[in-house]
Design brief:
The chain is mainly beta. It has one domain: Neuraminidase, CATH 2.120.10.30. The chain is about 0% helix and about 45% strand. The strands form eight sheets. Strands 2, 27, 28, 29 and 30 form a five-stranded antiparallel sheet that branches. Strand 5 (about 65-70) and strand 6 (about 75) form a beta hairpin.
Length: about 375
């Protein structure tokens, strides 16, 4: 699996340079990520690495995590044999194709354990002392994985590093602590969902800087009092959802220079969350009205993904409750879930560059190995 992931991930692709807002809506082709086994009932896409490796799960009996590349397609990842965890999901992946996620005893996530898939093999990530349950949600290029341990009111954020699971105990200046870590970048910044013990009805958009050992909140949008952070990009952009008293959310993007800024919702929707962001600050997420509406935000404009795919593709991203957009690579590949010919499948949307347009580049030929960032 390792050679497949590392080689196929970087086969020749044409990509859009995403350093600035486009003057017109971006264009995409859409690819069916498919199923691990022909008898599986559905698949879901949950994350994509900066260089375009996707992960998620294929739902069957058992349920399996997968890795996918544009050149090599879908590869099923093995479930943990001891202790048996027959239902797995891939939640995060780095540029080397190392996937992290969760193994459970049921499709609903019972008795979760944090897992890592590397070089074709699965292993349990180490739990901190005193904990028997855990999850892994993301991994950076240094091998630092993040997630949570425990359950219910005892669930806390954790990082898995150097053969150990470490509870993140650093609080923000007002005493808020991390409940679940959802994302980590190569600088070691970890983002997630926190709790303020003085006001547990309010969600805390929590950021932990593992390099400095400090934590802070991203704040809240005007008229709201809480937030949840779902992802952080390599340039430091953080995305998530801001809400009032754990009510309906509004997507946001946060930067060190600009603070928290509302992402406009697609037309006809009333709530949503941003779930993934790339180095250029392009964000993807899910908005909703009667249906789930996946979207992409280019720094200025928000587009419903259903309006950007070719007519007659067989995909429904507009009139289904199963649609999502969960991650975006640095080359603009968007990964999520939609309905394809009536079945729920994971997809990858690939940018289509216009010939001769400014800011476009073509990467030709397969590269020898994964792109390494700082």
């Amino acid at each position: 699996m390792s050679q497949f992931i590392r080689g196929a991930a970087l086969a020749a692709v044409a990509v859009v340079s995403l350093g600035s807002t486009l003057a017109s809506p971006p264009e995409y082709t859409i690819v069916d990520i498919g199923l691990v086994k022909p008898g599986d009932s559905a698949s879901q896409g949950f994350r994509v690495s900066s260089n375009g490796i996707a992960t998620g799960r294929s739902l069957g009996s058992p349920t399996q995590a997968f890795a996918w590349t544009q050149a090599g397609g879908i590869v099923g990842l093995p479930n943990l044999a001891s202790p048996v965890r027959a239902f797995s999901v891939g939640n995060g992946v780095n540029d080397a194709g190392t996937v992290v996620g969760t193994g459970a005893t049921t499709a609903f996530g019972s008795s979760p354990l944090p897992l890592i898939w590397q070089d074709g093999a699965v292993a349990q990530l180490p739990l901190p002392g005193g904990y028997t349950l855990g999850r892994a949600n993301d991994i950076n290029n240094s091998g630092l994985a993040v997630g949570s341990v425990g359950s219910g009111s005892g669930e806390v954020g954790v990082m898995y590093s150097g053969g150990a699971g470490l509870v993140i105990t650093q609080t923000t200046p007002d005493g808020s602590f991390l409940r679940t870590a959802f994302g980590v970048n190569d600088a070691g910044r970890i983002v997630g969902f926190g709790i303020d013990p003085a006001n547990p009805a309010v969600n805390v958009g929590f950021v932990y800087d593992s390099a400095s050992g400090t934590s802070f909140k991203v704040g809240a949008l005007p008229g709201r009092n809480g937030a949840i952070c779902f992802d952080i990009g390599e340039s430091g952009h953080i995305v998530g959802s801001s809400m009032l008293n754990q009510g309906d959310g509004t997507p946001f993007i946060w930067t060190e220079a600009g603070g928290i800024v509302e992402i406009p919702l697609p037309a006809g929707t009333s709530q949503g969350s941003a779930r993934g962001v790339n180095s250029a600050g392009w964000a993807v997420g899910i908005a909703s009205s009667a249906f789930a509406i996946p979207f992409v935000y280019d720094g200025s404009m928000t587009y419903a993904l259903g309006d950007l795919i070719p007519a007659g593709s067989g995909w429904d991203l507009s009139t289904t409750t199963s649609a999502s957009a969960m991650g975006i690579s640095d080359s603009g590949i968007i990964v999520g879930t939609g309905t394809y010919l009536g079945a729920v499948h994971a997809y990858a949307m690939i940018p289509v560059p216009a010939p001769g347009a400014a800011g476009l580049m073509v990467i030709a030929g397969a590269l020898a190995g994964p792109r390494r960032r700082r």
